[in-house]
Amino acid sequence: MSVSASTPPHTTGAVEHVAIIMDGNGRWATNRGWPRLVGHRKGAERVKQIVSAAPEMGIKWLTIYAFSTENWKRSTEEVLGLMAIFARYIQREADRMAAEGVRMRFIGDRTRLDPKLQRLMAGIEARTAGFSRLNLTVAINYGGRDEILRATRALAREVAEGRLDPADVTEAAISARLDTAGIPDPELVIRTSGETRTSNFLVWQSSYAEYEFTPTLWPDFGPQELADILARFGNRHRRFGGVSAE
Ligand code: IPE
Ligand code: IPE
Ligand code: MG
Fold first, then answer.
1. Could you give the CA distance from residue 167 to residue 178 in angstroms, rounded to a whole number?
2. Closest protein CA for atom 3 of ligand 1
3. What's the confidence (pLDDT) of residue 13?
4. Predicted local distance difference test score (pLDDT) of residue 1
5. Domain count, the chain
6. Could you give the angle at which helices 76-100 and 115-127 cross, rounded to 10 degrees?
7. 213 exposed, middle or buried (CB, 10 Å; 0-12, 13-18, 19+)?
8. Is 157 inside any structural domain?
9. Which residues does the chain have with pLDDT short of 50?
10. Ligand 1 pocket, 193 CB below 6 A?
11. Which residues pair with 65 in a beta bridge?
12. CB 25 near ligand 1, within 6 Å
């Protein structure tokens, strides 16, 4: 079955769209006396593993928070290191994603990113556009408020230019101008690392989502923990809860 943007959450009991706030990379590394970037590299390995395991758990949409509009406040070294990890991930994972039927997309304001990274992002989006086994959406320079602000500006422009009647500014009209246009709302949002806040993630889209907060740091979060969380949410694909831990 498929879920459309208009399907109310939880009508089937299945979780098809999971969104993850991948937090705790820095602490994972610092706890071991290592530079924060080592934690981010380990975190990227986890992403690969979760992306490969997700379809067998019945997940069709996976949205992950990789870099927020607030994360520019970090040191130049950490920001550049993260950007390098994103670029490397796209380059090294392209063939595997194609083989596994993964469609990769990005949300967030990409205009502030390095043009080379922007080209890699556009390239992988185009290359994987025909796949649908798993829809992987990566949030880079993403902020829920920023996304709503940009959508609001787009609407204001259309109204000012006489292309849109203010009466037609509906919830659907707003959704259609968000970066996530065409992507259903998540039924479940998971945040790792024990923090119990949403840090500006999917502000509009998560209004009906269930939240799960786990103390596990992202570099320690494996497919088995994801399967366990899904089983708790009554995922009807729970026969796959036996996915091996590592
Ligand atoms: C999450 O891990 C990854 C990003 C925000 C890029 P953190 O880097 O926030 O790790 P902690 O929270 O400092 O441990
Ligand atoms: C949220 O984590 C952003 C990402 C996971 C990319 P942060 O570590 O940046 O959030 P705060 O600062 O704890 O709210
Ligand atoms: Mg953090």
1. 19
2. 23
3. 66
4. 36
5. 1
6. 20
7. middle
8. no
9. 1-12, 236-241, 244-246
10. yes
11. 21, 139
12. yes
Catalytic sites, residue numbers = 23, 71
In a domain, 57, yes or no: yes
Q: Is the distance from the beta carbon of residue 23 to the nearest atom of ligand 1 less than 6 Å? A: yes
CA 86 – CA 6 distance, rounded (Å): 32
Distance 213 CA to ligand 1 centre (A): 15
DSSP3 helix / strand / coil % (the chain, rounded to 5): 50, 15, 40
The whole domain housing 87 covers: 17-143+186-232
111 CA distance to ligand 1 middle (Å): 23
Which residue puts its alpha carbon closest to atom 14 of ligand 2?
199
Question: What CATH number should be reported for the domain holding residue 57?
Answer: 3.40.1180.10
Q: Is residue 198 part of a domain?
A: yes
pTM: predicted TM-score of the whole model, two decimal places:
0.91
Q: pLDDT at position 235, please?
A: 58
Cα 71 to averaged position of ligand 3 atoms, centre (Å): 9
Digit-coded pLDDT (tens) for 8-29: 444 446 899 999 999 999 999 9
Residue listed under structure tokens 């939240």: 211
Q: Which residues line ligand 2 (CB under 6 A)?
A: 21-23, 65-68, 71, 195, 197, 199
Element (H, E) at 92: helix 76-100
In single-letter form, the type of residue at position 163 comes to R
Maximum alpha-carbon separation in the chain = 59
- d(CA 23, ligand 2 centre) in Å: 6
- Helix and strand counts by DSSP (H, E) for the chain: 7, 6
Indicate whether 60 belongs to any domain: yes
Task: Give the integer Cα–Cα distance in Å for 183 and 200.
Answer: 18
Ligand number with the minimum distance to the CA of 28: 1
Q: How far apart are alpha carbons 28 and 116 in whole angstroms?
A: 30
